[in-house]
């Protein structure tokens, strides 16, 4: 794949001729109907009136590396998903991940016309900060998976493989970026964010900025301690409110665990097991939101994930029931809403990173803290 042509000019320094090359006379609407681009070249728009970036001139790749699967997206400048590739594996190992990435990049090279292949701005990688963590929770008690990720710098490996700039960010932070830029973040500048996946995780947006914290863990709801009535000491939220536990309930009932990720979860024979999981997960999530609100006083909580929206809605209903039973004297409870992106959020958010790095008027919107 031919690396993108690099320019010594920042977006704010583009010449009139360069602006004219990037822009064309038509407005761009979001093909996925989740809003309008907040990151168009402000100078170009101001100079040239009702013009916007030619979406086919700039592309980016977003890769979500999960514990059991990997998703690769090719997007254009408007956020439209031009290509989507999904892979599954028993558990993540670097050599497997790199093989899938190499295969996908070859497909992308044939997918893009030659005149647009030089417009690839880079690759964003979304993955857990601790890919080797929580092995016992996943049922791998004697696993040596922790050894696979110790001595590898995945970003360097991919950059050497592709010649493209690579940025890495925590998976749920990437999902939060997608919601901030393309979803409810356009109307709400302060919110908690929770995302259901193999493990539940989250993010934190304050004053329209994603906050990652010193170690990249701000908004790490999965690690939040919660007290359960049948437990001697607090457990982590991810121990009880992750899709992994829902999958395990289905396995124990000799049902397809993949139903946790689709509409079957809200249908028989899965529904009774789903409801039992909701009845344990929702009170724990309510605890986490209550304590987070005590500290940060944010008015909105957005919940999304790799599962059916009807399942997410059912969880929100039960969370709200428990929030109403809590003592809110002195503070205001957050209003909960469904996320607007869905299962592609992590990969989509990571794909936005190279576009922001090259074109955003506010280059530090979230890049200043990216790990």
Total of DSSP H or I helical runs spanning 4+ residues: 10
- Tell me roughly what share of residues is in helical segments: 25-40%
Name the beta content range: 15-25%
Instruction: Indicate the structural class.
Output: alpha/beta
* CATH H level, superfamily name of the largest domain: ATPase, nucleotide binding domain
Q: Please tally the β strands and state the result.
A: 14
Largest sheet: 5 strands, mixed
User: How far is it from the N-terminal to the C-terminal residue, by CA?
Assistant: 26 Å
Task: Summarize this entry quickly.
Pfam families: ROK. This protein is an alpha/beta fold and 371 residues long.
Give a description of the structure.
- With 371 residues, the chain is of the alpha/beta class.
- It folds into 2 domains: 11-175, Nucleotidyltransferase, domain 5 (2-Layer Sandwich), CATH 3.30.420.40; 187-338, 2-Layer Sandwich (Nucleotidyltransferase, domain 5), CATH 3.30.420.40.
- Helix content is 33%, strand content 18%.
- Strands 5-4-3-6-7 form a 5-stranded mixed β-sheet, sandwiched between helices. A 5-stranded mixed β-sheet has the order 10-9-8-13-14, sandwiched between helices. Strands 1-2 form a two-stranded antiparallel sheet.
- The protein is globular.
């Amino acid at each position: 794949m031919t690396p993108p042509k690099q320019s010594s000019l920042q977006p704010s320094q583009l010449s009139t001729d360069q602006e004219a090359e990037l822009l064309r006379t038509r407005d761009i609407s979001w093909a996925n109907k989740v809003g309008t681009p907040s990151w168009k070249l402000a100078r170009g728009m101001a100079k040239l009136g009702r013009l916007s970036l030619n979406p086919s001139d700039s592309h980016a790749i977003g890769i979500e590396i999960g514990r059991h699967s990997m998703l690769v997206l090719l997007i254009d400048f408007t956020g439209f998903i031009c290509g989507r590739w999904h892979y599954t594996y028993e558990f993540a190992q670097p050599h497997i991940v790199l093989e899938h990435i190499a295969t996908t990049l070859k497909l992308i090279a044939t997918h893009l016309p030659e005149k647009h292949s030089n417009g690839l701005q880079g690759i964003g990688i979304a993955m857990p900060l601790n890919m080797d963590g929580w092995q016992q929770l996943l049922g791998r008690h004697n696993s040596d998976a922790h050894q696979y990720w110790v001595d590898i710098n995945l970003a360097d490996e991919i950059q050497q493989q592709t010649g493209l700039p690579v940025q890495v960010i925590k998976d749920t932070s990437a999902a939060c970026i997608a919601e901030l830029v393309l979803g409810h973040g356009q109307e709400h500048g302060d919110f908690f964010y929770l995302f259901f996946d193999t493990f539940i995780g989250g993010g934190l947006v304050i004053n329209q900025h994603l906050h990652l914290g010193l170690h990249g863990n701000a908004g790490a709801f999965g690690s939040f301690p919660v007290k359960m009535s049948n437990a001697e000491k607090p457990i982590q939220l991810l121990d009880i409110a992750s899709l992994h536990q829902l999958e395990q309930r289905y396995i124990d009932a000799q049902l397809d665990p993949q139903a946790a990720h689709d509409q079957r979860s809200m249908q028989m024979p899965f529904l009774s097991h789903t409801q039992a999981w909701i009845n344990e997960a929702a009170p724990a999530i309510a605890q986490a939101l209550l304590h987070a609100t005590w500290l940060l006083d944010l008015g909105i909580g957005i919940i999304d994930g790799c599962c059916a929206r009807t399942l997410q809605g059912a969880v929100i209903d039960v969370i709200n029931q428990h929030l109403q039973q809590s003592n809110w004297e002195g503070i205001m409870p957050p209003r909960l809403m469904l996320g607007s992106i869905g299962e592609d959020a992590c990969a989509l958010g990571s794909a936005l990173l190279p576009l922001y790095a090259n074109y955003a008027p506010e280059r530090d919107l979230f890049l200043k803290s990216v790990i």
